[in-house]
Write a structure and sequence with these properties.
Blueprint (H helix, E strand, L loop, with lengths): L1 E5 L7 E2 L2 E2 L1 H17 L4 E5 L10 H17 L3 E4 L6 H4 L3 H5 L3 E4 L9 E5 L2 E8 L4 H8 L6 H17 L6 E7 L32 E5 L5 E4 L2 E3 L16 E7 L5 E7 L6 E6 L1 H6 L10 E6 L8 H8 L3 E6 L8 H9 L4 H12 L7 H22 L1
Parallel strand pairs: 1-4, 4-5, 5-6, 8-9, 9-10, 10-12, 15-16, 16-17
Antiparallel strand pairs: 1-13, 2-3, 7-8, 11-12, 13-14
Family: Belongs to the SbcD family.
Protein name: Nuclease SbcCD subunit D
GO molecular function: exonuclease activity
């Protein structure tokens, strides 16, 4: 069986206030063409179809058009909701839509209920694990511990229990929206950390023939059977180095997996430039970036006059400008920025407690209280999106 693995469409998202709807439409045109030209049997979309819980009408219309075109090809599609999607809104009409071959999986209770599709060698069971917010689904799934790893483990227990009752030789595919250990993140993914721990081990998916992951925006191979497709478009300058693709996966009769990357259309390249204004305007090495979306970080010790207007004359598609003046190492502002870089919310809060107490950080009970507070905020945010 051949399937196309994609995720993180984020329909309706803009790039630094620049609409991406045309680029997203071009991607969906490309996806439909790829399904037809590569004789794809099934399309898998591993979450974050929309960029927010209540998407704009234009994004909904784009999604609706894509579903009609896929259904028109007679190619089944399996989709799960991600942490940006509202599972209740996204799942409306799922029973009716399923009659057209579009299978939406948004409810935790459905984790162990697969979409079973046959090929010449037998059945393939596709299990959809939507984004599972631990505080909201722990009780429903019967997870013994809090956290992402525990709820995903409970969901996978249901998957394995169902698979064990199926005929020998039934192949299995899992779609999941999660942060799996070994994956590399970028700036455009919403934080799903709970208690400072978001990553789950890839070993949770052992025994599954293929796991189609969503959430991280860079295409990644964690194992030959566990992969992220990444987003089809770049949604932050941290993705400037990404090669945006989809996975074209062949699942053989014995469960052997072979996967190839299909490039997606690039609406405009990204460039991150850093230096003094005069150098950015004059350096001939930057000529190749003049048609790119540009993020410029100026290092001038003193802020230049009208920097955005001056840069726009050479880089008409500049969309982001920041200032990081060159400072001596002993400058307190420079050292503070370095201390914060790469630290979690929990770590920053603990550092603040230590600061106001003259160096005495929180004890174990206080750390747990801070973790509970951050978990409650994230749970409230997830509940508001449902």
């Amino acid at each position: 069986m051949r399937f196309l693995h994609t995720s993180d469409w984020h329909l309706g998202r803009s790039f630094h206030r620049t609409s991406l709807l045309d680029a997203q439409r071009a991607f969906l045109d490309h996806l439909v063409t790829a399904v037809r030209e590569h004789d794809v049997d099934v399309v898998l979309v591993a979450g974050d179809i929309y960029d927010r819980a209540v998407p704009p009408l234009a994004a909904v219309e784009l999604f609706d058009d894509a579903l009609h075109r896929l259904a028109g090809l007679g190619v089944p599609t399996v989709m799960i909701s991600g942490n940006h999607d509202s599972p209740r809104r996204f799942g409306v009409g799922a029973g009716l839509i399923e009659r057209a071959g579009i299978h939406l999986r948004t409810a935790p209770a459905e984790c162990g209920t697969p979409v079973v599709l046959p090929d010449a060698h037998g059945d393939v069971a596709f299990y959809g694990l939507p984004y599972l917010e631990p505080a909201l689904v722990r009780a429903e799934l019967g997870a013994e511990r809090p956290g992402h790893a525990a709820v995903l483990e409970a969901a996978m227990d249901r998957v394995r229990a169902d698979l064990a009752g199926r005929p020998a030789g039934t192949r299995s595919v899992v779609l999941a929206h999660a942060f799996v250990s070994g994956g590399v993140s970028s700036d455009s993914e919403r934080d799903i950390a709970v208690g400072g721990v978001a990553a789950v081990p890839a070993a949770l998916f052992d025994g599954i023939d293929y796991t189609a992951l969503g959430h991280l925006h860079g295409a990644q191979t964690l194992t030959e059977r566990v992969r992220y497709s990444g987003s089809p478009l770049a949604y932050s300058f941290s993705e400037a180095h990404h090669r945006k693709t989809m996975w074209l996966v062949d699942l053989d009769a014995d469960g052997t997996v072979t996967a190839d990357r299909l490039d997606t259309p690039v609406p405009r390249p990204l460039a991150r430039l850093r230096g003094r204004l005069a150098d950015l305007l004059a350096d001939p090495a930057h000529a190749r970036h003049e048609n790119a979306w540009v993020e410029a970080v100026l290092t001038d010790p003193l802020r230049p006059d009208e920097p955005m207007a001056r840069l726009a004359k050479r880089f008409p598609h500049i969309v982001s400008l920041a200032f990081e003046p060159e400072r001596p190492d002993e400058d307190p502002l420079a050292s503070y920025a370095r201390r914060l870089r790469g630290r979690t919310d929990q770590q920053i809060a603990e550092d603040f407690v230590a600061h106001v107490r003259g160096g005495h950080g929180p004890d174990t009970a206080e750390r747990a209280l801070l973790a509970d507070a951050f978990d409650a905020v994230r749970a409230d945010d997830s509940e508001a999106r449902r």
